């Protein structure tokens, strides 16, 4: 049985990955401030911002695969605290890559579509990234650090939505909360993305582990839509009134960090490698809806304990 260590196991991607992977693999779920409990997985808490903790945990478990999901993902917080952003998004990935290579395992590093400046559509893996804020720069430097430490590592540039274990909401959950409560919210009409349902991303990740993939892959959905249109399509699938979503331009909000406008990446490389089309937005939203009907969000949330700061 393959041994898989998932960092960021309390986060959006990590929790959904652990939840799914425990059916097929021996899983170690690593979180920091949020204790997690997953049936069938070993759980461990550690502060990875100390290099010795990274080395210790990876040496202790010696996993076949490490999927590194832990990060500082708050774009505006990164802008306000660049030192922390580079520690979490560049230095930790470097240490994880180093420790994984030394222990003889393989690494999948999760990066972002936002390494590009968003001035055009259809970026391919070999296009030169031009990040426009601290978060994106720290993520790009994380990619470079991982490649330097381990050229065989897989780097996935992605963007996703889904059900969260934590109270922090994904874009879809945030729209839904407003729609269900009849509160108005704003959707950007000039920021374009190809969002993938996190559960679909998890399936792709598990397939990629079985393949001979190495290097960078763009792993996003099939359809390029504005964040406003995403909200509207979500409202339609949930049969809620889309009037609560107000169309706005991103500059109207005075956000701290600048945002890239068009992050619709080209996915031919991964599609050819796995011989499949990326899931459509309609498929993703329908599955997101069905998961709710089946009580999936509640099951996911029950895996997280009270927040405290006990991590070592
Ligand atoms: N969400 C998106 O739409 C999106 C889009 C593009 C790319 N990505 C990338 O996808 C990856 C996963 O994102 P996500 O949204 O799933 O993340 P998330 O929900 O924000 O979760 C972040 C995770 O990082 C962990 N973490 C933070 N600091 C840590 C530390 N010092 N030591 C150990 N763990 C630490 C947190 O643990 P605790 O909560 O236990 O402290 C949490 O599990 C990230 O690399 C992100 O850049 C995300």
What does this structure look like?
The protein has 312 residues and is α/β, with parallel strands linked by helices. It has a single domain (3-301), classed as Rossmann fold. It is 40% helix and 17% strand. It contains eleven helices and 13 strands. The protein has helices at 12-21, 51-61, 75-80, 82-102, 134-149, 171-181, 198-210, 227-237, 268-274, 281-293, 296-301, and strands at 3-7, 26-31, 41-45, 65-68, 106-112, 154-158, 160-161, 185-188, 192-193, 196-197, 215-219, 225-226, 245-248. The strands form four sheets. It has a seven-stranded parallel β-sheet with strand order 3-2-1-4-5-6-11, with helices on both faces. Strands 7-10 form a two-stranded parallel ribbon. β1, α1 and β2 (26-31) form a beta-alpha-beta unit. α2 (51-61) packs parallel to α4 (82-102) and α6 packs across α8 (227-237). Residues 7-8, 10-14, 31-34, 47-49, 69-71, 73, 88, 110, 112, 139, 158-160 line the site of NADP nicotinamide-adenine-dinucleotide phosphate (NAP).
Q: Bound small molecules, which ones?
A: NADP nicotinamide-adenine-dinucleotide phosphate
Structural class estimated from helices and strands: alpha/beta
Poorly predicted runs are: 307-312
Which topology does CATH recognise?
Answer: Rossmann fold
Oligomer: single chain
Query: How are the strands of the biggest sheet laid out side by side?
Result: 3-2-1-4-5-6-11
**Second-tier CATH architecture:** 3-Layer(aba) Sandwich
The total of helices stands at 11
CATH class designation: Alpha Beta
The total strand number stands at: 13
Our count of domains comes out at 1
- Integer average pLDDT: 95
N-end to C-end Cα span: 29 Å
- In angstroms, what is the radius of gyration? 19 Å
């Amino acid at each position: 049985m393959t041994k898989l260590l998932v960092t960021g196991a309390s986060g959006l991607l990590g929790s959904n990955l652990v939840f799914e992977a425990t059916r097929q693999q021996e899983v170690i779920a690593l979180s920091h401030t949020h204790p997690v409990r997953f049936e069938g997985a070993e759980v461990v808490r550690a502060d990875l911002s100390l290099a010795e903790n990274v080395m210790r945990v990876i040496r202790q478990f010696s996993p076949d695969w490490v999927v590194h999901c832990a990060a500082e993902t708050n774009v505006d917080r990164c802008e306000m605290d660049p030192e922390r952003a580079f520690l979490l998004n560049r230095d930790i990935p470097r240490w994880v890559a180093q420790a994984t290579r030394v222990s003889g395992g393989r690494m999948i590093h999760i990066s972002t579509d936002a390494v590009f400046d968003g001035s055009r559509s259809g970026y391919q893996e070999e296009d030169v990234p031009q990040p426009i804020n601290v978060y994106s720069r720290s993520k790009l430097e994380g990619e470079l650090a991982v490649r330097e430490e381990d050229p065989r590592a897989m780097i996935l540039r992605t963007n996703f939505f889904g059900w969260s274990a934590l109270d922090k909401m994904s874009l879809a959950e945030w729209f839904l909360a407003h729609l269900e409560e009849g509160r108005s919210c704003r959707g950007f009409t000039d920021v374009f993305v190809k969002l993938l349902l996190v559960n679909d991303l998890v399936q792709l990740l598990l397939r990629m582990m079985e393949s001979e993939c190495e290097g960078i892959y763009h792993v996003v959905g099939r359809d390029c839509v504005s964040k406003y249109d995403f909200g509207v399509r979500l409202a339609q699938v949930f049969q809620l009134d889309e009037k609560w979503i107000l169309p706005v331009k991103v500059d109207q909000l005075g956000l701290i960090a600048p945002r890239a406008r068009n992050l619709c990446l080209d996915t031919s490389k991964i599609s050819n490698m796995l011989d499949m089309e990326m899931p459509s937005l309609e498929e993703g939203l329908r599955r997101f809806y069905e998961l709710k009907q089946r009580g999936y969000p509640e099951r996911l949330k029950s895996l997280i304990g009270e927040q405290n700061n006990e991590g070592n």
